[in-house]
Design brief:
Blueprint (H helix, E strand, L loop, with lengths): L9 H6 L2 H10 L13 H14 L7 E10 L7 E3 L7 E10 L4 E6 L17 H10 L9 E4 L2
Parallel strand pairs: 1-5
Antiparallel strand pairs: 1-3, 2-3, 3-4
Pfam families: DDE_Tnp_1_7 (PF13843)
Protein name: (salmon louse) hypothetical protein
InterPro entries: PGBD
Length: 150
């Protein structure tokens, strides 16, 4: 719009071409990545909204908890690379899903230490802690079957 003949602004048109501006804009970045928090409240708001909608559906009897990669080509720090997966780049997380494949709850890997051998405060490994967290919302004493691959 700034470079169009009838609507153009002379000081912008004379300073640089539109293509030069677009080339500069590709590399322009105003966040300090060294202090940028991966657990940004905006991510949590989105995750909470998705979790709320997932919990509205009645859970299936047979459920499983497993790691997954959600494929993406987005340029974001949460993206992980795994050469052994069919989709090598994506968001890494762990989810609780029913036998139909519907996801009832999930946790997104945000770049924190996620070492399977590391112990938590209650003596469980990190991967087991995720399993306990994701299974907390399953109704108790209702004959649900949960399978977890650690």
């Amino acid at each position: 719009m700034y470079w169009q003949g009838s609507l153009g602004i002379d000081c912008i048109i004379n300073a640089m071409s539109r293509d030069t501006f677009e080339e500069i804009k590709k590399y322009l970045h105003f966040n300090n990545n060294s202090i940028l928090d991966n657990n940004c409240p905006n991510h949590e708001k989105l995750n909470d909204a998705i979790r709320k909608n997932c919990s509205c559906v009645p859970p299936e009897e047979h459920q499983s908890i497993d790691e997954q990669i959600t494929p993406t080509k987005a340029r974001i720090s949460l993206k992980q690379y795994n050469p052994k997966k069919p989709h090598k780049w994506g968001y890494k997380g762990i989810s609780r899903a029913g036998s139909s494949g519907y996801i009832y709850d999930f946790e997104v890997y945000t770049g924190n230490v996620w070492d399977r051998a590391q112990k938590t405060d209650n003596g469980l490994e990190i991967s087991s802690e995720f399993g306990m967290t994701l299974s907390a919302n399953i109704p108790h004493h209702r004959n649900y079957k949960l399978v977890y691959d650690n």
